[in-house]
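Q&A log
Question type: sequence-to-structure
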Amino acid sequence: MEVIVTTEEKLRTLIAEAVASVLKGLPVPAPAISEPEQPITDAEAQQLVKRSRQALYSWRREGLITAHNFNGRLFYFRSELLEALRREARR
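Response status: OK
Response body:
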């Protein structure tokens, strides 16, 4: 049997490297399931993207966003609006 003499700091480093090596080989866990996205009103959508009602209408007509109709009122989803802003910036 061999006796190894080391310092506390070197031992911590060796342990950290060993743990990192083992963790690197493990699969990445699936992301947590999030709550369903809540729809936002037309007025909230205008504030979010800093565009007029007419601009939102143009985006709908061009197929950049989808308006969701519930009881005769239009709603949008934040993620769809933000994606439309990204696409508009790339044009």
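Response note: The first helix runs from residue 8 to 24.
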